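Allow me, if you will, to draw on your knowledge of protein folds for a short while. The matter concerns a single protein, recorded as an amino acid sequence and a row of backbone structure tokens. Kindly check, if you would, that the fold set down in the tokens agrees with what the sequence suggests. You will find the record immediately after this paragraph.
***
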Amino acid sequence: MSELTHKIQQGVIEAARALYGAELLPQQAVIQPTRKDFEGDYTAVVFPLMRLARKQPEAIGEEIGQWLCTHLEEVERYNVVKGFLNLVIADSYWNQFVRTQVDATDFGRFPASGQKIMVEYASPNTNKPLHLGHIRNILLGWSISQILEAAGHEVIKTQIVNDRGIAICRSMVAWKRWGNGTTPEQMGKKGDHFVGDFYVLFSKKFEEEYAAWQQTEVAERVFAERHQEGQSKAAFFKAFKNQYFNEFSPLGAEAREMLRKWEAGDEETLRLWRMMNNWVLEGFEETYRKLGVSFDKTYLESDTYLLGKEIIEEGLAKGIFHKDGKRIWIDLSNIGLGEKTIIKSDGTSTYTSQDLGTARMRYEEFGFHRLIYVVGDEQISHFQGLFEILRRLDEPYANGLYHLAYGMVDLPSGRMKSREGTVVDADDLIEEVVEEARQHAAERGEIAELPAEQQEDIVRKIGMAALKFFIIKVNPRKRMTFDPAESVDMQGQTGPYVQNAYVRIRSVLRKAADYEAKHAADYETLQPGERELVKLLYQYPEVVATAAREYDPSHVANYAYNLARAFHKFYHDYPILKAESEAARAFRLELSRMVARVLEQAMHLLGIEMPERM
């Protein structure tokens, strides 16, 4: 709640006491922004006072409106529509707000909360390069971290690299079988792309193997013994693929054996694993630099999974876990998940066992109050189970865990599939949006006279804004379709549109040169477009607070777009440099300057840089 909203709310409470002898609770004094089709800035809902005042809502509104105009200097006038008291804030208040906040370095930033929050994002696997889905994950994690810092929290940005497991072994088997000893350098490829090609190759060879097996007598017998009545062969074998991998596949057996050797510490397997992992990690770092993100701490699953096994032993001693041979499981029926395997029957770890170890390791190192996992919504049940297990283990941080489950990203043609190589590669996507920005800049010709290095910097900022804003403006929990053509559109609800408002203001300020800001205090009557801009600026801290509370950076993105749109309209409707008076000119320049600062700050929270020229 803003300072002004709180002051109006307290005014309504005091008015009720003075006029009716009634004691209102804060939740009974509802204050909300006035609807656009009515005159006013804030609206007080007076219906709750009918029983206390024993009057009709229109009469109550008139009496409280008069009281507020008399006792609150911020309230200039009012009108009553049924049970709604619409309050108009004095122009002098909005004028003073702009003049006092235009240079305030803490506007939109909150005092230290004493809360330490860890945000986990990215969390890639070292068997494939980063793709469009990772981009959504990374941009959400980075912007949430920036917003939480603005909200006053101490933030630790972290990632867990999934550098072990059966998926990693698929790539290793493929390179060992068909790589012929080649390296990324020899092939002229980034390391993550190079290894990812072998992950896709493994899947291709496995599909060929599975197709051939389906023609064998063994497959016929399996179908006869296991298919459901009325189930076609095609439907059966489509559903049977994972069981085939685990029970019959030579390639599957080779990958599982490699995982077993890895966990047993076989040196040859570990040498191959380290070499391929290093190739991928170097590739990841290059992509992170392009996206402008970083981490305070990187954890590797290969370092944490054994600690998870120690925690499981503690849980066995407490009777939380159960053991059948080598398999260890837990009953999660109370949250609808049934029996959940923690350690597989061959003694190898699951993601849950690894995450148990990672969570404790992080808490012991940082002592966080909250830990936010930015992970796709296909892992909702995984995190429900993990959090429940940690609660049963009485881990001190268990109640501070949160899964920011974001929706998957589809292509216009359908869902992306890593094994089939149908993903949108992150590096290719970055290159595409920057190239699109380059073509737009060439068509406009407005930066053609600048040095080539400066042009390239502007083009990069525009391209990255197009990509980042397109992703972040969507509520994280919504599934989204990524349309490359729409994402690089330089008009409409896009990052470049917001950047253009900032660039326009910077141009105006350069032309204004030195001006006497003090004359803005003499500007007494604000125009409607000016009031709209000021009111939007006033909302910014509340927008940041809401985005931090809901872990939703789309609030900030959509706010930045609305502010930019309001400024573009203001710029079209009102002269700035040639304003009708010196006071109007000074105020509009100060107002424009504050809009530019808030736009820059808001876009910074989204990881977007602002160019000086476009």
The chain has a mean pLDDT of 93. DSSP finds 23 helices and 15 strands in the chain.
